[in-house]
Task: structure prediction
Amino acid sequence: MEQASARADPGPATEAGERKPKGRGHERREEILAAAARLFLELGIENVSTRRIAQAVGISQTSLYVYFPNKASLLEVLCDQCFVKLVALAHSPEARAGEALDRLRWLMRTYVRFGVEHSDEYRLSFMIKHQHAYVTGADIAAFLDSSVPREAMPPGMQCFMELQDRVNDLALAGILRLDPRLAAQVIWAAGHGLVTLLITMPEFPWVDRDTLIDEAVEIQFQGLVIPPQMHNR
Result:
């Protein structure tokens, strides 16, 4: 592991090589996160060290450790920020409106649009291989244990549980063809696939994006939901 420098934090460097005044803690933390996200996306997580992140911000490696003890903690915060936004969308009034199928339809349309509109955050959280495991074995065990409070789980797990809730609502309404756990994973896999295509192949002559997203969601439901319920589209 790299040895941290013993220099005090002099503040970020300007283009002329001088140092800006030392920022407040919150501002400095955000500077570090922004630099880490940019480098992770440009170079790959495995090719970026905490030393390199510190240099990009213009601080010593020791100073970076005041805010983040290692690269894994930086990555965890960046991913959590994305997942927290998704959870917040799932808790919005729009997400709670209508019948069970309407709520699931809204959630998946919103998920795909969020991924495309926040492509850097999405790529970092869902599409780049992480050197460090974001979800641990303990997290998985907690996810499978219904007695564990949801707020005790990582935001990424909470995101999937929001989807699982919507699918469970379909099962309770008696209109779901598949096992709810299987159905939730099928829906997520399809949604992620669409986001990935739209992000990685922007040059493809896609039809109107909103139309594409809406119809992709509806096609999934045709295979997951008992047919008569689809008459209420």
